[in-house]
Here is the input.
Amino acid sequence: MEAARSQPDDGVGQTLSAGPLEVRLDQQTVLADGRGIVLTVREFHLLAVLASRPEQVVSREEIYDLVWGGPMPEQDRSVDVYISKLRHKLEASLPHWTFIQTHIGFGYCFSPKPLAG
Here is the structure.
């Protein structure tokens, strides 16, 4: 299985693929086995940041800076809340997969894996 691969999308943008998940950056859409997943703009940007760096741990502060556009306020839990919402939507669409791993005290990693079972 390829963790995530980036491929040209008719010369305009990119599609990040991980198993049955496609993140179409140019169209700001996400597909699970070809079916659309409804995400908010912020959820989409969060997924795009993580999926564009497969198997790399990204700090909460860096995620906040890239998605919210500035430094993360002290004690802010926005990244954690949005990760939870995003996981819920991905798991509802692809229940036999896991995509986002937590690195406690630091950040998150996009590491797609089918669940055993």
User: Anything to note?
Assistant: Residues 1-11 have pLDDT under 50 and may be disordered. The chain has one domain: 5-111.
